[in-house]
Amino acid sequence: MAQNQGISLPSGFGGLVNYKEEYASKFMLKPIHVVAFIILIIGFRIGLGFFLG
Predict the structure, then answer these.
(1) What is the spatial distance between Cα 53 and Cα 33, in angstroms, rounded to a whole number?
(2) pLDDT greater than 80 at residue 22
(3) Within its chain, how far is the Cα of 29 from the centroid?
(4) How far apart are CA 33 and CA 46, in angstroms?
């Protein structure tokens, strides 16, 4: 096992990263919209398999 040498490294970002609580974007999507879009894509892909396969 590793032994403690008494050396400590500084943290990676040093508190310089600031994440805003509210991010302003042109596309504000709710999680349900993303899930519905994924289900739509999966359904479309399965439908292509039936019609073209």
Answers:
(1) 29
(2) no
(3) 13
(4) 20
